[in-house]
Amino acid sequence: MDPGSISKAGPILRGAELRAYVAGRLDPWDRPAPAAIRSDLDLNPDLDFGEPEDRAAAVLVPLVERAEGISVLLTRRSDNLRKHRGQVAFPGGGIDPGEAPWQAALREAEEEVGLDRSLVSLAGLSTPFRSLTGFHITPVVGFVSPTFIPSPNPDEVAEVFETPFAFLMDAANHERELREFPVGPSRWVYSITHNERTIWGITAAMVRELYRRLYGGDE
């Protein structure tokens, strides 16, 4: 698939046409997000983890518009963090009182990787996720200017890198694997590996859901 193409069957879309295509398949970013319809239990329907209290969070899914095609900006979380240390993730975190998901996503991206919000053109909201740890996460999709130079916060981010959008939007690269966890039983998760970096869990599930929304892929 051409890395500049957003449609597998149609013409190559770039610039304003591409942004319009993506926005048309997402929920409006300036309206309340719908109820979560995805969760860690999608691949593990027989597990029962009770009903944890929801904690609102948001992540930015940054699509960097480079001349050679779109790439997706991701981070590797610091090994010194208390939770999810060393994992690949989108910039994001908890939603403060009075914040909309898009405001929280932009604030967290600025705090974590130095992304000035003036360099982001919001496209819309992808499907919310509820994690087994009790987070209700809204993915906010935005196009990022290629002039952006990351400045990661070392307290939170060990590494910032980009992965080709075409690779992430190829369902052949979406694997399911059974993982063991320090607490609770083993469970199935999505996993995507590129250049020896593995995206898994909720982040990989968000990538999978974005693929489904843009391309109408299978569940």
Account of the protein in words:
The protein has 219 residues and is α+β, with helices and mostly antiparallel strands. It has a single domain, classed as Nucleoside Triphosphate Pyrophosphohydrolase (Alpha-Beta Complex). It is 18% helix and 32% strand. The protein is built from 4 helices and 12 strands. The strands form 2 sheets. Strands 1, 2, 3, 4, 5, 6, 7, 8 and 9 form a 9-stranded mixed beta sheet that branches. Strands 10-11-12 form a 3-stranded antiparallel beta sheet, with helices on one face. The longest helix has 14 residues. It is globular and about 45 Å long. The N terminus is likely disordered.
Which descriptor suits the 3D outline?
globular
Annotation field: number of helices: 4
**CATH level-3 fold name:** Nucleoside Triphosphate Pyrophosphohydrolase
- Computed CA radius of gyration, to the nearest angstrom: 16 Å
Helix-residue proportion? 10-25%
* Helix/strand order, N-terminal first: HEEEEEHEEEEHEEEH
Q: What is the name of the CATH architecture? A: Alpha-Beta Complex
Q: What is the CATH top level name?
A: Alpha Beta
Please report which band the strand proportion falls in: under 5%, 5-15%, 15-25%, 25-35%, 35-45% or over 45%: 25-35%
What is the mean pLDDT? 86
What structural class do helix, strand and pairing data support? Answer: alpha+beta
Main β-sheet description? 9 strands, mixed
Low-pLDDT runs: 1-5
Tell me the number of strands: 12
What number of structural domains do the residues give? Answer: 1
Question: Can you identify the CATH superfamily?
Answer: Nucleoside Triphosphate Pyrophosphohydrolase
